Amino acid sequence: MKHVVSVSLGSSKRNHKAQVNILGEDFIIERIGTDGDKKKAVELIKQLDGRVSAFGLGGIDLYLWAGNKRYIIKDAAELAKAAKVSPVVDGSGLKNTLERRVINYLHDNGIIDFKGKKVLLVAATDRFGMAEALVNKGADMTFGDLIFALGIPIPLHSLKTIDILSRILMPVLSRLPFEMLYPTGKKQEVNSVKYKKFFDRAEIIAGDFLYIKRYMPPDLSGKTIITNTVTKEDVETLKNRGLKMLVTTTPELQGRSFGTNVMEAVLVSLLNKKIEEVTSQDYEKLLEKIGFLPRIEVLN
Which of 222, 274, 227, 230 is nearest to 247 (CA)? Predict the structure, then answer.
């Protein structure tokens, strides 16, 4: 049996474990939060290294993307170095394949017509594949990278602008403590409506759920969210706030959707290749074979 573990800097309240069969292989899929404690995350990785098929890094990105350029996050690289035997992934490889497929699937099957729709993508550098797919489908885009990561309430509207800003800012930002850019630990449980106007304008809210959860307003009536990891409690909260439709890019496994880092770790385990040898084409072929479909729920 293969064992995949997501070691997350996020809240331990979101921990979950599931047993599934994928392409004839039995998997234990587990998510363990360390409440923002990077030392604890390192110790956990060292303890499980060689005993698990692959690690996912949760609550932190190893890589951020803009255009064809990849930026390495220093804090995440330190965590990844703790594993000497088991491969470590952060979900970015899968975001560039699976999440493009999900946007195309929603559009091609008549579930969502993105053309002209007002879409707030909370961070494009975290989900560049999704960003490009939404732009290609003709959505009216607002990118929240400056707003939600840096607290600068300036919306961006083009990928070219993000590419230019990334080349200027990323060499510095990638070396900052990650908690300055992203909610970790207890910060994930705090809700603020300081950026309410950007949510109010949007018909579709997309991207990382912890950014969405931290800043979403009390009223989400008529809106759609396209995101990654949600728990049963999150779904109930979204329903109570009037959300019309919830789409998660990863499937539901025993009551919740796991993050892309977990699902990428599953694919790496199935491929039996060195992580540096895995290509986007490998992921595409495997996704086609497995037939992963997004989870789509009409809540109101």
Answer: 227
